[in-house]
Amino acid sequence: MKVIIDLDEKKVLLAGDGKDQAFDLYSKEAFAEVADLWVRLGWVRKYSYGFSWLGRPIIQLPDDMIRIQEAICEVRPDIIVETGIAHGGSLVFYASLFEMLGKGHVIGLDIDIRPHNREAIEKHPMFKRITMLEGSSIAPEIVAKVKSLIKPTDKVMLILDSNHSKEHVTAELEAYSDIVTPGSYILSQDGVMKLVAGMPRTKPDWDWNNPIGANEEFLARHPEFELKHPPRPFDETSQTPECSHHPVGWMRRKP
Ligand SMILES: C[S@@+](CC[C@H](N)C(=O)[O-])C[C@H]1O[C@@H](n2cnc3c(N)ncnc32)[C@H](O)[C@@H]1O
């Protein structure tokens, strides 16, 4: 497959894979192709590993962070449960948004909370809005503990960012989807694995062993959920394609 960006002719040309096409350089379609390539090359270059939030490293594309912020602002959850803490930047991100919104608490789970990360997160001013639990996100005792921390009246959002194998994501979806309240979302992250399969910094089975397959099968089993990206509250771009690591990742519990 070739992608040719011809600045003289003002065209983006795709050749190969039965997909010979030419787009005007300034068209939405050309932008989508170039953005897709940018996301995939950025994966290889670890572009999403270059950011922090309020002093903690966060492993996200900034575009995805803004979209998550929009979803939080729309839903105003009382609780976000996130699997996968790493350095804690995403926990601090949600907690700081909750601080500005005047309510909300984050429950973060990780199979291995490194002591230096734990210490830094516990010292952070936003820790007052964070609870961390250590263990596998699908261990029955962890699932039970998370559920014990949620009140029946709480609005809950779920973000999956731990082990992204199809099997693990499926198990997480089945373990936690019932806590997600109507009108709120699950964000099952890193569907980008499917898009980057075969490139450096990937594993050979990523073409099928990724969150997208888990999400699609979950949706087929759970008609109470629908594939639905949070609406853009502001968009003068005629729905410019997303630059995201989370394609096919937003699932809304139908209101
Ligand atoms: C991509 S990092 C999380 C990044 C973080 N959410 C952020 O945005 O900055 C993935 C984390 O998932 C954790 N993890 C892997 N398998 C897990 C499991 N079975 N249960 C819980 N956490 C797991 C890893 O230890 C790692 O810290």
Can you walk me through this structure?
This protein is α/β, with parallel strands linked by helices. The chain is built from eight helices and twelve strands. It has helices at 28-44, 62-75, 89-101, 115-123, 140-148, 166-176, 192-196, 211-221, and strands spanning 2-6, 11-15, 21-24, 51-53, 56-58, 79-83, 105-110, 130-134, 156-160, 185-188, 225-227, 250-253. The strands form three sheets. The protein has a seven-stranded mixed sheet with strand order 8-7-6-9-10-12-11, sandwiched between helices. Strands 1-2-3 form a three-stranded antiparallel sheet, covered by helices on one side. Helix 3 (89-101) links the parallel strand 6 (79-83) and strand 7. It is globular, with a radius of gyration of 19 Å. The chain binds S-adenosylmethionine (SAM). S-adenosylmethionine is lined by residues 58-60, 83-86, 89-90, 109-112, 136-137, 161-163.
Could you write a compact summary of the structure shown?
With 255 residues, the chain is an alpha/beta fold.
Query: Which band does the percent of strand residues land in?
Result: 15-25%
Shape, please? globular
- What Rg, in angstroms, do the CA atoms define? 19 Å
Give the overall average pLDDT.
97
Give start-end ranges of low-pLDDT stretches. Answer: none
* Helical coverage, percent range: 25-40%
- Structure classification: alpha/beta
H/I helix tally:
8
What hetero molecules are bound to the protein chains? S-adenosylmethionine
- DSSP E strands, number: 12
Largest sheet, strands/sense/barrel: 7 strands, mixed
User: Which H/E pattern describes the elements?
Assistant: EEEHEEHEHEHEHEHEHHEE
In what order do the strands lie side by side in the largest sheet?
Answer: 8-7-6-9-10-12-11
What's the end-to-end separation, in Å?
42 Å
